Amino acid sequence: MIPIVSIVGKSDSGKTTLIEKIVPELSRRGYRVTTVKHDLHGFEIDKEGKDSWRHKRAGAQAVVISSPRKVALIRDVDKDMSLEELGDSFGEDADLILSEGFKKDVQPKIEVFREGKHEELLCTKKDNLIAIASNRPFDIGVPCLDIDDVKGIVDLIESKFLQGDQMEEISLRVNRKPVSLSPFVKRFLIRTIKGMISSLKGAENPKKIVIKID
User: Fold this and answer.
1) SS3 letters for 44-65?
2) Gap between the Cα atoms of 79 and 195, Å rounded
3) Superfamily of domain 4-40+80-162
4) pTM higher than 0.70, yes or no?
5) Concatenated DSSP letters for 155-180?
6) Average pLDDT of each block of 10 consecutive residues along the chain (214 residues)?
7) In 3-state terms, what secondary structure has residue 3?
8) Count of CB atoms within 10 A of residue 110's CB?
9) What are the boundaries of each domain within the chain?
10) Which of 62, 85, 100, 171 could form a disulfide with 81 if both were Cys (CB 3.0 to 4.6 A apart)?
């Protein structure tokens, strides 16, 4: 299952700004990140008059907009989907799903708090709070990192949610030359190969796998 971390906080705390800093640092480390923004008030991304808007107005339940570099999906839903449901539906190519909002969801949370903007925290440990990013210290039983310490925040996310496969290693050689693999490709290959091998009779619990194609 793809790990999910929610960046939460009260209005004007700096959630989006922090995400804008976390995502490139995770990308620099080789991880693929999907972000999810929660909006209780609804939203429109297909502007009136555009072809996608006309398709939707005509009665299409779902509209897909495709280009050589981007794909967008506009789909009707009958409820406010949980983060887990969103992850299952849209996060399959990611190493991590980073959400903004979803303060009532059960997923792990990092709360952004700015002294001078708010008086008290939004979450507690009971809300699955794993850390606080703030410009003032807190002592409530979870790490409190400086709001500008992006490396420290990403270190925490990486150690808690992205290093589960570190005990498993995979290497690739093509024409006797080693090929460098990103963390995403490593995890994808490990999961795919182990999943296929474990379905074979007599190989249900593979510990070491060697594949050679000549």
Assistant:
1) CCCCCCCHHHHHHHCCCCEEEE
2) 33
3) P-loop containing nucleotide triphosphate hydrolases (3.40.50.300)
4) no
5) HHHIIIII-TTTTS---EEETTEEE-
6) 88 91 91 80 68 76 78 77 73 81 87 89 92 94 96 95 68 86 78 82 80 80
7) coil
8) 25
9) 4-40+80-162, 45-78, 166-214
10) 85
